[in-house]
Amino acid sequence: MTHLNFIAEPGKQEIVITRLFDAPCELVYKTYTDPHLIPHWWGPKNGTIIVERMDVRPGGSWRCIHRDVDGHEYPFRGVFHEVLSPERLVYTFEFEGMPGHILLEAVTFEERGGKTMLTDHSVFQTLEDRDRILRTGMEEGAVESLNRFAELLANRRNR
To answer: Phi and psi of 113, rounded to 5°?
Structure first.
């Protein structure tokens, strides 16, 4: 399993996550943006993800709801600002439970000899917002989600 690199430098309003996937860029991008596949990898494994909307185009919006095992719902939403298939996505990310605390996320997909380096660069409005999300277990959640993503890619690649 490939190592995830999670960087949250003190005093910076950003988080950078990188991971190399053993799959071509096109497959990684399509898996990352397919609304039918997102529930199979995004968010905690012990919950359910409902993709209410996923319009992957500039100006298009997205909304996903995480439902935990007790039935509590946690909705997230955003707007796509840049969509350059299969190389780059830029979109906003907002947890509806904390309205107005919006981050800008840029995800790049870089081909490396049949593998793909995914880089997720999130920029927060304030250092306090960044630190608050770190305290929620974001790093552990990113590891879990991207491990599940790698498993999904392996299954899709072996078809």
So the answer is: 60, 50
